């Protein structure tokens, strides 16, 4: 069953609907979590379908690229420096290089269940990269709308290469979403942005996995970058379902990080207000979170409040520093938006919000290769040498 998160109105699973007809608010899919013993998941392959009892689609028809089951890396060097127990969940290891694959696997499976023939999305990049691949896998037609000139090179390459019809508009992500939503409401295509609650059903498996990664325990805190705020809402839903199922007792403080000039949710949390006021011209180098009017802000605000969590902002410089720090200290290469979680972690430790000894899971959302231009711009040019080994030896002795 699909339910409005504000007025509680209920809708059938086979209705194609994105917002409540009664009050206009956003929807969620209700899942029955009773009587699923924890051992159900033993000896299953490590992908999101391991948790198929919690996924409200027809698993027989699954559209899957073996997404999920991503690395969970204990990061002792950074952890020690900050005085915490740190784990990093590496979502860049998904099939197209971001956590979006979890949502698209379930979302395109739903599209197949519904019998639609075309899917579409607006995107800052990763949503389109993922949808283009999953639509190909499912044999569905696919249309994506991107903000012109603001999509990282790797993501654009993926969306184009997997065969989506790619449109570029003169506007930002929020404008692109408005345009594609109109087409979806006309019935032209099935919308797979995160306003579609089935996307979040796939993404909630991050919450499942991190609990299982910790031996069926909750961390003290989960930190992640927040753009449209679907992922923080999804992870919280997953955590709550696992708690309701009786798999663990505690829950983590959900902690969202936004880029300074794209921070409507962090601004609301910091000012103690429940009202999320959209940012007109959002801007940041972390293009995946360059979003001014988060679609899932009500869900995200609830997740933060119910979990006694928080939100913080970080500057582009802090993001770039954290990106390189993670790459060079722990060997984990992530795109700028993902590094916001590490930058936010650092800031929250420094300002005393995070206690010494806390067990923290940072979600790093996308792969470093998504945005090769940012990576290359941050580095020195390769050193030109002759083929004489002496040339290289001389340089090696100086490093
Ligand atoms: C989509 C995305 C985000 C933001 O997730 P939301 O669900 O929109 O809050 C963060 N990082 C990366 C790499 C993404 O692709
Ligand atoms: Zn409603």
UniProtKB/TrEMBL annotation:
It catalyses: O-phospho-L-homoserine + H2O = L-threonine + phosphate. Its EC number is 4.2.3.1. CDD domains: Thr-synth_1. Its cofactor is pyridoxal 5'-phosphate. Signal peptide: none annotated. Pyridoxal 5'-phosphate binds at residues 126, 227-231, 365. Pathway: Amino-acid biosynthesis; L-threonine biosynthesis; L-threonine from L-aspartate: step 5/5. It holds the Pfam family PALP. GO terms for molecular function: L-serine ammonia-lyase activity; pyridoxal phosphate binding; threonine deaminase activity; threonine synthase activity. The keyword Lyase applies. InterPro entries: Ser/Thr_Dehydratase, Ser/Thr_deHydtase_PyrdxlP-BS, Thr_synthase-like, Thr_Synthase_bac/arc, TrpB-like_PALP, TrpB-like_PALP_sf. Keywords: Amino-acid biosynthesis, Lyase, Pyridoxal phosphate, Threonine biosynthesis. Residues 63-366 form the Tryptophan synthase beta chain-like PALP domain. The modification N6-(pyridoxal phosphate)lysine is found at residue 100. One of its GO terms (biological process) is L-threonine catabolic process. Catalyzes the gamma-elimination of phosphate from L-phosphohomoserine and the beta-addition of water to produce L-threonine. Belongs to the threonine synthase family. This is Threonine synthase. It comes from Methanosphaera cuniculi.
């Amino acid at each position: 069953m699909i339910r409005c998160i504000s007025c509680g109105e209920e809708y059938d699973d086979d209705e194609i609907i994105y917002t409540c007809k009664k009050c206009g608010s956003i929807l969620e899919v209700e899942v029955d979590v009773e009587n699923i013993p924890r051992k159900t998941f033993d000896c299953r392959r490590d992908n999101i379908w391991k948790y198929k009892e919690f996924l409200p689609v027809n698993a027989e028809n699954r559209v899957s690229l073996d997404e999920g089951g991503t690395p969970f890396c204990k990061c002792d060097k950074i952890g020690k420096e900050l005085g915490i127990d740190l784990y990093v969940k590496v979502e860049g290891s998904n099939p197209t290089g971001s956590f979006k694959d979890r949502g698209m696997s379930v979302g395109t499976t739903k599209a197949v269940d519904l019998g639609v023939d075309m899917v579409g999305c607006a995107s800052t990049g990763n949503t389109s990269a993922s949808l283009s691949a999953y639509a190909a896998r499912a044999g569905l037609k696919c249309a994506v709308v991107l903000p012109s000139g603001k999509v990282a090179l790797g993501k654009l390459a993926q969306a184009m290469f997997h065969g989506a019809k790619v449109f570029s508009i003169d506007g930002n992500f929020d404008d692109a979403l408005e345009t594609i939503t109109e087409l979806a409401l006309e019935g032209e295509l099935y919308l797979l942005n995160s306003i579609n609650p089935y996307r979040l059903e796939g993404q909630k498996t991050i919450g499942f996995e991190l609990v299982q990664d910790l031996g069926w325990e909750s961390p003290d805190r989960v930190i992640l970058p927040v753009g449209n705020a679907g992922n923080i809402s999804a992870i919280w839903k997953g955590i709550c379902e696992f708690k309701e199922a009786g798999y663990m007792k505690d829950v983590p403080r959900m902690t969202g990080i936004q880029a300074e000039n794209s921070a409507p949710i962090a601004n609301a949390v910091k000012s103690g207000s429940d009202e999320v006021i959209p940012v007109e011209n959002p801007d940041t180098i972390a293009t995946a979170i360059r979003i001014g009017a988060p679609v899932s802000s009500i869900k995200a605000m609830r997740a933060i409040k119910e979990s006694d969590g928080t939100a913080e902002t970080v500057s582009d410089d802090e993001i770039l520093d954290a990106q390189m720090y993670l790459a060079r200290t722990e060997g984990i290469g992530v795109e700028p938006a993902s590094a916001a979680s590490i930058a936010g972690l650092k800031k929250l430790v420094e300002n005393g919000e995070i206690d010494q000894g806390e067990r923290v899971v940072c979600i790093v959302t996308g792969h470093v290769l998504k945005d090769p231009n940012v990576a290359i711009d941050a580095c020195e040019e390769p050193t030109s040498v002759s083929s004489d080994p002496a040339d290289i030896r001389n340089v090696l002795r100086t490093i």
